[in-house]
Amino acid sequence: MTSRPFHHGNLRAVLLEQAEQVLREGGVDGLSLRELARRAGVSHGAPRSHFIDKQALLDALAEQGFARLTEKVGAAIATPGSFEERFRRVGRAYVDFGVDDATLMELMFAAKSNHPTPALEAAAARLFDTLDGAMPAVSGGPAELGAPVGPADSPAELRFRFKLLFAATMQGTATLITSSRITRAQGDTIVADAAAALLASGLGIRLLHSPA
Amino acid sequence: MTSRPFHHGNLRAVLLEQAEQVLREGGVDGLSLRELARRAGVSHGAPRSHFIDKQALLDALAEQGFARLTEKVGAAIATPGSFEERFRRVGRAYVDFGVDDATLMELMFAAKSNHPTPALEAAAARLFDTLDGAMPAVSGGPAELGAPVGPADSPAELRFRFKLLFAATMQGTATLITSSRITRAQGDTIVADAAAALLASGLGIRLLHSPA
DNA sequence: CTATTTACTAGACACTGTCTAGTCTGGCGA
DNA sequence: TCGCCAGACTAGACAGTGTCTAGTAAATAG
Q1: Which residues of A touch B168 (CB under 8 A)?
Q2: From the Cβ of B81, is strand C under 7 Å away?
Q3: For residues B43 and A84, what is the distance between their CA atoms, to the nearest angstrom?
Q4: Optimal mutation site among A53, A109, A199, interface B, most CBs of chain B within 10 A
Q5: What percentage of chain A's residues is helix, strand, coil (to nearest 5)?
Q6: Which domains does chain A have, with CATH numbers?
């Protein structure tokens, strides 16, 4: 090892960077704090100064992942085009991210037994807020979807349900591709079909064509 | 320990059973071959006779999971009722399974780096075949969905796309609930909305109402 | 310049998965 | 019926891991 000042000065960032690379190469099983320390050229206990736990490191990775995905989705929304085109672009961006960084995606949407970090929670919330930008404009009127429809179904509520349905479909598509259950091309088809089906359904039409 | 014949006689089944319980209690991180051996009252090396690897144990668990899920989906399909009711029942069964056995579900749909076991592959295929039973009847005519539609889009192809879209939505819903991104009730809403949106879309209407 | 807080080192511990060599035994061929 | 042998199981070892602890170096605050 080349001589290094006692204080690394950048350890936290380097560890996260190496961790993401290791995740891509060998999955979460191949990720060990000690190897990360070795790669960074520090002792095996050094990471503890920045991450109390291995879980803390994983949480930080997930948080970073949410930020990156939010950025990609935001870019897809910002690109001009018809509503359906934008819809498809967002879906493809979401799915592509989930497939290319499959292990990271699993970390982001893993079943949490212990209560999640507020920072992680916030990063996830930011993604879902960003998703709002891909939704059609709000309109009034009762819903035409399948769930029990009552007077409480405000336009905002409909928009929210529209978003949830969209998010679930993209999320599931990424999972199915990742687990080799379907191909990437089939995933693209799902995205396109989802966009068409959602828009063709009562809610989509209503949201698109009704006066605001 | 009470005396036990040298040959356990049932070790493999007991290990799998204990493993499923441990998965439910402490997630995949809490699962160790050595503890399973301890619970079964055998030495730490004994599991190796039945599972060459820890991964082999996990694969067997996933395979069992696919079988159980297939059974539940099959039962939901078999129950009489309108098409949309059946659709919702299947969706709810799928999502419920994925939420109640979240860790097992993650195992079943994990990103596989190494090539998957043929048995596991077959179990997964069986689930997707069973899903066909929840789809509407096939009809002729061109597609009305969003993906590029050409003369190659046979009715069977449309049915298949319908199924993929359905599967992805259910899968994603389960993941979103499991990761605490949405509530179980919101998951139910997604299922209902998905059923309605799919049926209201061109493909659903065509498949339902066209002459066979 | 001193004191404190932070980053890091080094050693230890319990635990894990996996490999190996050896022991037991149920069931098969002779 | 007997011998034996493949398969189930034991026990020990090894490298690797996450985490804890005590101590050291250095950046920073007073």
Answers
A1: 169, 172-173, 175-176, 190, 194
A2: no
A3: 60
A4: A109
A5: 70, 0, 30
A6: 10-52 (1.10.10), 54-132+151-211 (1.10.357.10)
Is B49 (CB) below 7 Å from strand C? no
CA of B56 to C1' of D12 (A): 24
> Token digits for A58?
């994983």
Q: How far is B75 from chain A (nearest CA, A)?
A: 22
Closest CA to A84 of A173, A172, A198: A198
Contact: B200, A202; criterion CB under 8 Å = yes
Nearest-angstrom CA–CA distance, A37 and A32: 9
B23 closest CA partner among B34, B14, B32:
B32
Nearest to B111 among A179, A186, A203 (CB): A179
CA B137 remoteness from chain centre:
23
Q: Encoding tokens for residue A22?
A: 């290791």
pTM of the model: 0.90
Strand D reaches within 7 A of the A209 CB: no
pLDDT digits (tens, 9 = 90+) for A20-31: 999 999 999 999
Cα A19 to chain centroid distance, Å, stands at: 18
- Please write the tens of the pLDDT for every residue from B144-199: 454 444 445 677 888 899 999 999 999 999 999 999 999 999 999 999 999 888 87
On whether the CB atoms of residues B198 and A193 are closer than 8 A, the answer is: no
